[in-house]
Amino acid sequence: MTAPEATSEAAFQFMLITNSPVVATHAVASGVDLVFVDLEIKGKHERQPGRSTVISGHTFDDVSRVRAVVPSGRLLVRLNPWDAQSPAEVDQVIALGADHVMLPMFRGPAELESLVRKVDGRCSVVGLLETAEAADSAAEIAAVAGIARLHIGLNDLHLALRRRFMFELLVDGTVERVAAALRKRSVRFGIGGLARVGEGLVPAESLVAEHVALGSSAAILSRTFHRNETHDGPLSSGPALATEIEKLRSEVRRCRGLSGPALDAIRADTAMRIRRVIGSA
Asked: Of the given ranges (117-121, 231-235, 242-246), which has the lowest mean pLDDT?
């Protein structure tokens, strides 16, 4: 398929999850667009038993500490799934300086509409689409007014759909269908996470081609970007993180400059890699 019309390079955002002010400072200086404090804890242990996924354990105090070092407009806070405590949680994170709030695990438009009403224009709203119900109602979700961006969360979504490998969603039609619904409404969206170029069961550069072809404009930087990090900051100094982020941006530029057939060829190779992993699972 031919890629949708490309957005500008600056519009492709890379997000890094951390609760360390030192890491956050280094990340912003290295080219990270959004620093991501993760308050989500409710239901995570039950959804991801025995898996190697990271449960962040960040706190409201972390929001305040990271806010102190992150420039205006660049602090995102992931909330807990919507429940009776959510309105108070929203007020608290906005009071602490969140520029963007992200709602995980919503099942349809109603929860996002509740969040938009509660936020009432005080910051931007991001939806993390990662349930089977949300994937099935993508068209209705895309029509919710007041959403700045949606992000397709591959980890929880692949568990919900009982897939063996999270990138299987890129070859079974799930992400293609959701992305088409979002593009139809001109809703900006991102997809999952990216490792360093040259790393991962499916290399990051292969996945960048999927982002470009599907119209995605954001990705979360995976745990491989925390490789030399302690809670107090990166163990290694210098431009390493900046270099790795620039490699990803270079891949975005390269893929956006490809012809439709050239991009399709990369996608065919990516699909083959994904199916190979599924077959060996």
From this structure: 231-235
Q: Which residue has the higher pLDDT, 170 or 54?
A: 170
Give the C-alpha separation, 138 to 89, whole Å: 26
Q: Return the SS3 of 34.
A: strand
Cα distance between residue 245 and residue 251, in whole Å: 10
Question: b/e map of 68-93 (b: 16 or more CB within 10 Å)?
Answer: ebbeeebbbbbbbbbeeebeebbeeb
For residue 105, give the DSSP letter: S
In tens, the pLDDT along 77-93 reads 999 999 999 999 999 99
The pTM score is: 0.90
Quick check: 90 and 119 in contact, CB under 8 A? yes
Contacts of 53 (CB under 8 A, 6+ apart): 155
* Class of 11-280 in CATH: alpha beta
Q: Would you list the domain boundaries of the chain?
A: 11-280
What are the angstrom distances between the C-alpha of 213 and each of 64, 141, 179, 180, 261? 37, 22, 10, 11, 11
16 in Cβ contact with 36 (< 8 Å):
yes
As a whole number of angstroms, the distance between CA 125 and CA 146 comes to 7
